[in-house]
Design a protein that fits this description.
Length: 75
């Protein structure tokens, strides 16, 4: 990757829109990809139970964080 704002970082950020952590995986950051994937989907799964519906807010926050992290990554 060429750095912040490069085409690779834009593609990685777009990948995170669909699957959180996929952008980090595209950048070659396996641990960060795994952490973001687990954080986001755990919160969304808890929200799907209906009892902990407010966890969707945290899932959304973590997903936006993963998008910003992919877009600002300097390799």
């Amino acid at each position: 990757m060429a750095g912040q704002g490069s085409g690779g970082n834009v593609i990685a950020a777009i990948c995170n829109l669909f699957i959180p952590g996929l952008g980090q995986l595209v950048q070659g950051r396996i641990l960060a990809a795994l952490i973001f994937f687990v954080l986001v989907w755990t919160n969304y799964a808890l929200a799907a139970t209906g009892i902990l519906f407010f966890m969707a807010i945290f899932g959304f926050i973590f997903q936006v964080w993963s998008i910003i992290d992919a877009a600002k990554y300097r390799g």
